[in-house]
Write a structure and sequence with these properties.
Helix content is 49%, strand content 10%. The chain has two domains: 350 residues, Alpha-Beta Barrel (TIM Barrel), CATH 3.20.20; 132 residues, Rossmann fold, CATH 3.40.50. By secondary structure, the chain is of the alpha/beta class. The chain contains 24 helices and 15 strands. The protein is globular and about 70 Å long. The strands form four sheets. It has a six-stranded parallel sheet, with helices on both faces. Helix 10 crosses helix 11.
């Protein structure tokens, strides 16, 4: 086990860490800390993310918290100003995937291509390549506060450049990295990276500049209650406060059931304050609470359903005790959104926010009170157990808790997580566990949870299984909070008899590049095993070279590659040629997902990837049964089955 603790990094050690961080890319030289302090002190209050949120809270308002981030500066400014026109003042600022993973040469290459063509080639804003001077132009172009997004590898460098540029908030989500963004990072690496950000914010705070930290917690990829997510958010808050951060913002997720969501929103500030005070951080402020539409699960592709999806969230948000709300754009499912879709989405959501808030509508019921009680008991039990495992030091308890499955989540990306828990929805769409793994959930909460699961089993006449969990995951995109017993039968694909072979075909699966979307490839891997194939599952964030090496070593018959972050063309250029060079030129190659940045015609994507050398190309939401049927046909034609 590592020897991390919740003690502040000594100043000399921190300054050396800063020197090393800023030396990683030429724009690091643009960061002058003393100058940045003065620049931030002279910013108007409407540029401070935490102050904007606090004003919303004071005035009883609900502000939009949309995503933004495109590589071309002029287009980014145009986008931000269009959002300003719709009243947006809170900006989660998305950096591109290559920047987030410190593949800065690739980011620079695609930034140059974006500028040359006028078309975005990156799925976000390459803040490190642009640097402080250019990013200040972006910040100064509009009114609002920026909460800049990253993942672990580039988190420290991005924070340095972002704060020096005038951005005033950043997630410190070490559990988000473990849950969904970093496959191989150790728990200690995640902790130490998060401590750097907390220490940097503390360093600014010591000089009179209060920046904010948003806490996202363990981002899960399946249907489970928010207990672990809320508990890990609070642990992130304690870690950040331990390094001197003074402004912590809970970011709470919608799950779909109004009673359960509002109960979680009501429980969160109470629990944050309880544990910040308990561990001695009484001077840390909580400016407000943000509701996040993620992880309300897969987004509908048709326009009418997409409007229904965002407006349902807006309605619940209007009745919830939150001060900011993230809603996805109506074209979320088909690529990077246009300015027009941003505007239409936020006009619609703002209309609902205003109408609901002006009426003072609130949801109150015994069911909400009970859900809140269960949430508070479960979250408290988890936090207390982690602290116990660290002998009273909450940060020291994180690694043993993860290794023991005391902190756990379904379909987790990181190799250090147990991935032993699973959940489904109950009859009313609230998330429940069907497998607790080693989670320290109190008996009273388990009995309540189990009763709700049994109610659905009796009503539907079936057990709640892995398959039901997956169907529940997809249900919201089909206009329902829970799946129907007929969903699996109505996917339009015939059932296929499992192979019964002594030497079945070997299939390599994984998500390419630095893409962290893992649930699709995990589900596909399981389905292939159940269909009788031998599967080598590489999970997400897999380089082309790793795919080829695995195929060489196993004499694989096919590779099924997924990509959902829009940059597969860059990742897979010359992939068939590389297979030929490696002596596996005749291997079957399938690829599917969101294969380009922005709106794309699937026929164009299919043509492009077949020219690269892929045998089959699939759009998003393709049935797993179709993949397996095609695989049967292709392998049968080759005499392999």
């Amino acid at each position: 086990m590592s020897k991390v603790s919740n003690t502040r990094i000594p100043e000399e050690e921190f300054l050396q860490m800063r020197r090393e961080t800023l030396a990683a890319w030429p724009t690091g030289k643009e960061v002058d800390f003393d100058e940045a302090v003065e620049y931030l002190k002279n910013l108007p209050e409407d540029r401070y993310f935490g102050k904007i949120l606090a004003n919303y809270k004071k005035e009883g308002k609900l502000g939009l918290y949309p995503r933004s981030g495109t590589p071309i500066v002029e287009q980014e400014i145009e986008l931000l100003q269009s959002m300003n026109d719709e009243g947006v003042r809170l900006f989660p600022f998305t950096t591109d995937s290559y920047t987030r993973n410190m593949q800065l040469d690739k980011a620079q290459q695609l930034l140059d291509e974006s500028i040359a063509t006028g078309k975005p080639k990156l799925n976000g804003y390459p803040i490190v390549c642009h640097g402080v001077k250019t990013t200040r132009k972006v910040v100064e172009s509009c009114k609002g506060g920026f909460d800049v997004r990253s993942s672990r590898k580039a988190n420290s460098l991005i924070a340095e450049i972002a704060f020096a540029s005038g951005m005033t908030s950043m997630p410190n989500s070490m559990f988000g990295w473990i849950g969904s963004y970093d496959k191989t990072a150790t728990v200690e690496e995640c902790i130490r990276t998060a401590q750097y950000l907390g220490r940097l914010e503390g360093y600014y705070a010591d000089r009179g500049v209060t920046l904010s930290i948003t806490t996202h917690g363990w981002l899960f990829n399946g249907v489970v209650p928010m207990y672990i997510n809320t508990a890990t958010k609070i642990i992130e808050a304690l870690l950040s406060a331990g390094q001197g951060a003074k402004s912590i913002i809970p970011l709470m997720n919608f799950q779909g059931n109004a009673y359960q969501d509002i109960a979680d929103f009501r429980a969160a500030p109470k629990l944050y304050r309880k544990y910040l005070d308990k561990f001695g951080y009484t001077d840390v402020e909580i400016p407000g609470l943000i509701g996040d539409q993620s992880p309300l699960w897969p987004f509908p592709q048709d326009l009418g359903s997409a409007f229904g999806y965002i407006n349902y969230v807006a309605t619940i948000a209007g009745m919830a005790p939150i001060n900011g709300c993230s809603v996805k754009t109506i074209d979320e499912a088909i690529g990077v959104p246009s300015i027009e879709s941003h505007q239409q989405t936020y006009r619609s959501a703002n209309w609902i926010f205003n109408v609901v808030r002006q009426q003072g509508l609130e949801l109150n019921s015994a069911e909400i009170d009970l859900e809140q009680e269960m949430s508070e008991k479960a979250v408290s039990a988890i936090i207390e157990k982690v602290a116990e495992m660290g002998d009273g030091d909450i940060v020291a308890g994180i690694e043993p808790a993860i290794m023991a499955g005391v902190l756990d989540s379904p379909f987790c990306l990181n190799v250090n997580a147990k991935d032993q828990v699973l959940g489904v929805k109950d009859l009313h769409g609230a998330a429940r566990y069907i497998d607790y793994g080693n989670l320290p959930i109190p008996q009273e909460v388990r009995e309540y949870n189990d009763e709700k699961v049994r109610e659905r089993e009796i009503a539907e006449g079936r057990k709640m299984t892995f398959e039901v969990s997956l169907d529940d995951f997809w249900a919201i995109s089909r206009g329902s909070l829970i799946s129907s017993p007929d969903d699996a039968k109505n996917d339009g694909e015939p059932d296929i008899e499992p192979l019964n072979m002594e030497n079945p075909p070997t299939i390599i699966t994984g998500t390419v590049g630095v893409d962290s979307h893992v649930i699709g490839t995990k589900v596909l891997s399981r389905a292939l095993r159940e269909a009788g194939f031998k599967v080598v599952a590489l999970s997400a964030q897999t380089s082309p070279e790793e795919f080829i090496k695995a195929a060489q070593e196993t004499a694989a018959d096919a590779m099924l590659i997924s990509s959902l972050y829009g940059m597969a063309e860059m990742d897979l250029r010359g992939f068939r040629d590389k297979c030929v060079e490696a002596g596996i030129g005749d291997i079957l190659l399938y690829v599917g997902g969101i294969l380009g940045v922005g709106k794309h015609d699937f026929e164009e994507d299919e043509k492009k990837f077949k020219e690269i050398g892929f045998d089959r190309v699939y759009p998003p939401e393709t049935s797993v049964k179709r993949d397996i049927r095609d695989l049967h046909e292709d392998l049968k034609a080759r005499g392999r089955i």
